[in-house]
Amino acid sequence: MTILVKKAEVVAKVEDQNEISDLVLDGGFVVSKDVAGNDGCVKPEALVSNDEFIAPEINAFGQTFRDYNAESERQKGVEEFYRLNHIHQTYDFVKKMREEYKKLNRVEMSIWECCELLNEVVDDSDPDLDEPQIEHLLQTAEAIRKDYPDEDWLHLTALIHDLGKVLLLPSFGGLPQWAVVGDTHPVGCPFDGSIVHHKYFNDNPDYNNPKYNSSKYGIYAHGIGLENVLMSWGHDDYMYLVAKENGSTLPQAGLFIIRYHSFYPLHKCEAYTHLMNKEDEENLKWLKIFNKYDLYSKSKVRIDVEKVKPYYLSLIEKYFPAKLKW
Question: Which residues lie closer than 8 Å to 85 by C-beta, 6 or more apart?
Answer without folding.
Answer: 125, 178, 179, 182, 200, 232
